[in-house]
């Protein structure tokens, strides 16, 4: 069993997210991707298209986490400055990469697209980086050290995550269990805190929600240690069963996890 | 005319966002809220329910921006530790606030809800903070110095933003204009960069998208200075018109901004 905890930071780059013009979907996609691989997504930052800000954020995150994923800012226009920022963060040059250029030119040939200086911006790759292929639009992302630079367009971001998945080291997978309670959080707080205090290796999250005509709380337990997780879950289930009996609450079958 | 640039940082607190279990919607809601008030949302961070991490992020953001908004972690359960983190970040105590307690108890009386230690956690407010009212569930948020601490439940977060809006100083409103081009970003890059180079007070963003049967690029220009914005927009529109003529592209009326 792999005992290593593998962490990641995500950097979302783009004015359009911060202005509210675009609703981000890459945070959730990356979060689910990490969870599936047993990687703990530990932090997300969203920053504007400002080179110094991107450099600072990349340098902070890459020292702190096993992996850093970036999304956005690798297209052909002047506001696409992620490659420039990454090259500066690592103190390396940003030449045209011959293989990236080939990938792009062969796609452009197919579609009769003219080669322009703007389009060739997409072939600029920091020195020493490996390419991350992009089957959707041919413009590659890249990896330098522990930083993976990917596209902001959600379908391309997803394809790039799938492309890098086999190269990532997964950690101990976090397993989860859930318990549904037909009461609000306030009815659970004290005894739940008592259970949590005895399980520092199990994280118990509590998520109130409306459902089935009344307030519900979904309790989600997460741990690397399945035996401890199951014992803690049994305790939480017993607590919820007791509350349901005391308050004469019967949950419909479909409300159970 | 108010010449001040007013900035904000947003801190989203919650394991459920980082694990992918919950899709965040508060980032976009806050971004739109800021844009409407002329506040520039400059950075977003998403952090887990870990007290030291929250303290560090709050301290970093509150020094950097005019306002900091936080969302999440102010409920009644053990994993709701935002108030604790804020009190620690400011080095102040976290007593039960008499007015917050009254708000909660009067709501609980109406609904026949028992007062428990867990529920009273929601009345703990850092010393020196003002309350932010919550019409939805009565549990208040609070403001301490330039940090506004609000709920994670989206409908309550929105209500709290509306509640604080009149107390916030708006900046010079950023106006925006858009131009639709019936070509990909690559066809625009070089001449667009040339226009951008002459307008350092206008930000030109470029957003490719599929639409009307072919690739489209939406160009969004943003500036505090309306006269400059309109001149730059006219230049971009003229560039796009020329490309459309050269390539014999006619956009349908509904594709125009």
State the main characteristics.
homodimer; 257 residues; alpha/beta; Molybdenum Cofactor Biosythetic Enzyme, Chain A; Alpha-Beta Plaits; 6-stranded mixed β-sheet; 3-stranded antiparallel β-sheet; 9 helices; 23% strand
General description of the model:
Chains A, B: This is Molybdenum cofactor biosynthesis protein. Chains A, B: Residues 9-171 form the MoaB/Mog domain. Chains A, B: InterPro entries: CinA (IPR050101), FLAD1_M (IPR056596), MoaB/Mog-like_dom_sf (IPR036425), MoaB/Mog_dom (IPR001453). With 257 residues, chain A is α/β, with parallel strands linked by helices. Chain A has 2 domains: 6-167, Molybdenum Cofactor Biosythetic Enzyme, Chain A (3-Layer(aba) Sandwich), CATH 3.40.980; 175-255, Alpha-Beta Plaits (2-Layer Sandwich), CATH 3.30.70.360. In chain A, 39% of the residues lie in helices and 23% in strands. The first copy, chain A, contains 9 helices and 9 strands. Chain A has helices at 15-18, 26-37, 51-64, 82-90, 98-111, 117-120, 154-164, 189-198, 226-247, and strands at 6-13, 39-47, 67-71, 130-132, 141-144, 147-150, 175-181, 203-211, 214-223. In chain A, the strands form 2 sheets. A 6-stranded mixed sheet of chain A has the order 2-1-3-6-5-4, sandwiched between helices. In chain A, helix 2 (26-37) runs parallel beside helix 7. Chain A is elongated and about 75 Å long. Chain A starts with 5 loop residues before the first strand and ends in a 10-residue tail after the last helix. The model of chain A has no long low-confidence stretch (mean pLDDT 91). At the A-B interface, helix 1, helix 2, strand 2, helix 6 and helix 8 of A face helix 1, helix 2, strand 2, helix 6 and helix 8 of B. Strand 2 of chain A pairs antiparallel with strand 2 of chain B.
């Amino acid at each position: 069993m792999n005992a290593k905890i593998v962490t990641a930071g995500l950097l979302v780059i783009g004015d359009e997210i911060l202005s509210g013009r675009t609703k981000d979907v890459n945070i959730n996609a990356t979060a689910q991707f990490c969870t599936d691989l047993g990687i703990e997504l530990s932090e997300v930052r969203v920053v504007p298209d400002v080179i110094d800000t991107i450099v600072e954020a990349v340098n902070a995150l890459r020292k702190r986490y096993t992996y850093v994923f970036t999304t956005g800012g690798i297209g052909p226009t002047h506001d696409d400055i992620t490659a420039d920022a990454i090259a500066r963060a690592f103190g390396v040059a940003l030449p045209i990469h011959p293989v990236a250029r080939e990938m792009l030119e062969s796609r452009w040939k197919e579609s009769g697209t003219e080669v322009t200086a703007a389009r060739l911006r997409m072939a600029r790759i920091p020195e020493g980086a490996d390419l991350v292929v992009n089957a959707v639009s041919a413009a590659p992302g890249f990896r330098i050290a522990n930083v993976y630079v990917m596209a902001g367009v959600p379908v391309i971001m997803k394809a790039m995550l799938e492309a890098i998945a086999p190269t990532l080291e997964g950690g101990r997978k976090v397993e989860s269990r859930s318990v549904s309670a037909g009461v609000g959080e306030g009815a659970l707080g004290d005894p739940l805190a008592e259970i949590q205090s005895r399980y520092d290796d199990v994280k118990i999250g509590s998520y109130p929600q409306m459902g089935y005509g009344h307030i519900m709380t979904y309790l989600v337990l997460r741990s690397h240690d399945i035996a401890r997780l199951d014992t803690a879950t049994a305790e939480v289930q017993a607590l919820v069963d007791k509350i349901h009996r005391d308050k004469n609450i019967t949950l419909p079958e479909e409300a159970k996890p």
